[in-house]
Amino acid sequence: TQNAALQSISDVWECIDSHTRPLTAELIPSHASLHRVLAAPAFAACDQPPFHQSAMDGYAIAESQNNTWQIIETVFAGDMPSLPLRPDQCTRILTGAPIPDGTLAVLKQEDCILDGSSVGSARPWKPRENIRPRGSAFQQNTPLIPAGTRITAGALALLASAEIQQLQVRRHPTALHLVTGGEVVPAGFPLQPGKIRDSNGPMISALLNEANIPSSIQHTGDDPSLLSEVVASFTGDLLLISGGSGPGDRDHTLQALTESGFSIHFSQINSRPGRPMIFATRGHQLAFGLPGNPLSHFVCYHAFVRRALARLMGTPAASLESATIHGDLLDPHGDGRPTWSPARISLDHSIQPIAWKHSGDLSPLATANALIFNGADQKKSPVAPGPGTCHYLPL
Amino acid sequence: TQNAALQSISDVWECIDSHTRPLTAELIPSHASLHRVLAAPAFAACDQPPFHQSAMDGYAIAESQNNTWQIIETVFAGDMPSLPLRPDQCTRILTGAPIPDGTLAVLKQEDCILDGSSVGSARPWKPRENIRPRGSAFQQNTPLIPAGTRITAGALALLASAEIQQLQVRRHPTALHLVTGGEVVPAGFPLQPGKIRDSNGPMISALLNEANIPSSIQHTGDDPSLLSEVVASFTGDLLLISGGSGPGDRDHTLQALTESGFSIHFSQINSRPGRPMIFATRGHQLAFGLPGNPLSHFVCYHAFVRRALARLMGTPAASLESATIHGDLLDPHGDGRPTWSPARISLDHSIQPIAWKHSGDLSPLATANALIFNGADQKKSPVAPGPGTCHYLPL
Q1: Across the interface, do B137 and A298 touch by the CB < 8 Å criterion?
Q2: Which residue of B has its CA nearest to A370?
Q3: Are residues B358 and A163, on separate chains, in Cβ contact within 8 Å?
Q4: % chain A with pLDDT above 90
Q5: Which of A55, A132, A163 is the closest to B197 by Cβ?
């Protein structure tokens, strides 16, 4: 176990990556796969289109010496031609309908001259024009969606059109959020003098919910033996512990993790907020000891826990982006320690820090959609990507 | 009723806006408000912090002539001081704990000289330092979150910390998706020759699901009387009809809407895809007749239906953004008609069109996260915002 303070955000991210393995896969019905992450590529189960198809409303024509054809039937989308074409015959056909055997091309309706039951061509035409051959979009057994893709509404439409019934997706991780601290009162309980309402609980529950992660929550107060017991018997994938990560008299998180067989990979990092922050693993299980202060909790979830979640799901992790900054990004502490600040990024990709009074003030969370990263990351990031710009993490 | 083709995307959007009213509000518990849209501002129900609070681990000090204080007790976060301070007394205090009556300032632990049970100051101090006064983050009855805000995980934390139990949010709209066309076969039914699988159903269901809109689906085949009956008896907020919006023999959407008392605001627009597209209202109910082709369906949902949804929810509508384009954006039709194309926007805000073979090819939907808008919008948008750039709508 390694206990030194990690000095750069890149080091922290690399440490998290190197100790986190993608979850196993499970087979689920495609129709239930919205927002799930593919663990293996999805292969087409049919040709698309499934038959030679007309791309236009018009006439499917056979060969003809004099460019004139007798109409033998009409085929709407969904119907099948009942007759093959012989020379000098054509079939009136609608967009999406299967073309009859013997079709050389489909002439667009507006390029035809209709004379009773016969059709002539008003323009030169080319063989195969306005025909979508069977399998021309994709063929059966073609890989359609790569592993690591999160299934969107559009992807669901593609899966349906490709007759893909089942998918290999990453299993949902299961999470437990432990809220420590005798001063923290869960929703629904009266707030005695000196106590504060638990806001980390609803925050983490919603964040995990948005990441499709079923979670439960437990409040352990200031009882170190209850904390140790719950950590020891934890059977899920991701354990988030709120508070108690520092070195204080009532900080028991590090001890509870160590005693329960977790290996501590770091317990301090060079980040504001987040200096006292723990990352530990036990087999495939991950644990984070996060600062109890809600604004710090929020930042550390986005900057560090999400990194681990991406790795669990086999998806690319969010990385620092750059944007034009509006307003001042002061370093109120003047110590140059890398700092994350809530901010709002606009549609024009400019970013504005959100003013906040102190770490007990959660008002910035009402509208924050980004975290500005202010400070040098010794390994990779310069202080800012250019004059009037900054690095940020989108939320 | 007005039936002319609208010529610019701005005209279409303005028409949708002008015929769509925000939904009524409903009162719900705050803890169930994730992703809901505030219909009224949320006001703080308590002061934050709820008491004068120490911002540091250290000593709450009273007045003293000689800058030395006797420690009378220790107060942890969550505890209450049992004794007020008298001159020359101090209380050991932890971050977040309530300060005792008589406190002038909190001295940081590292700025103090501890001598048995008495404390001296190693530095000059200022009155009120390291104290967060009650209500200094926000005060009871202050507006905290403006109307029109979508509740995020961060906002939930703020609501909890402000003891806000209930919120006025926009009612969920209810939607019905009608899939017309005899060739379209829903999931779970065998695909006879000449038929195609319904992909619009799963697509729209997922898109509405992501927008928190409960929806149901009905397949009406090619039966115009069934379509008319369902449209006439529709009692929800949003009716989406897939297919049958054009002027063809089997296109019954316009007639069904008109006969059922809907006012048609447009039935054609200058957009590819989407030329035959219907927007109609009946009282507060909205109806869209969307192209049945799945790629067109997808585009028209994002470009037009989402506009109406934003207006129903009282949120800002997504507007065209600009980005650097990688790759060529050809106009394969050469007619200059404004065209939407699936594209992928990267973290560096460059955008790349996704190649697709024909409108039956849904492969681009696996990875599309933007629609490039190619073409002049006569009213507002130039052809492109600059050389090597384009307009796009984020998905």
Answers
A1: no
A2: B154
A3: no
A4: 78
A5: A163
**The dihedral of CA B296, B299, B300, B301: what is its sign?**
positive
Q: Is the peptide bond before A353 cis (omega within 30 degrees of 0)?
A: no
Contact A152, A161 (CB under 8 A): no
Strands B166-170 and B105-108: unpaired
**Does residue A94 carry a pLDDT above 90?**
yes
Residue A268 contacts B, CB cutoff 8 Å? no
pLDDT, tens digit, 9 for 90 and up, residues A32-83? 999 999 999 999 999 999 999 999 999 999 999 999 999 999 999 999 999 9
With beta carbons under 8 A apart, name residues in chain B contacting A51: 193-194
CB contact under 8 A, A222 and B78: yes
Reported as a single tens digit per residue, the pLDDT across A177-211 is 999 999 999 999 999 999 999 999 999 999 999 99
ipTM value for the complex? 0.91
Supply the mean pLDDT for chain A: 92
Q: In Å, what is the CA distance from A126 to each residue of A72, A104, A112, A115, B358?
A: 22, 9, 14, 22, 18
CA distance A2 to chain B (A): 27
pLDDT tens-digit map of B349-378: 889 999 877 777 899 999 999 999 987 665
Q: Do A163 and B132 touch (CB under 8 A)?
A: no
Closest-CA residue of chain A to B42: A366
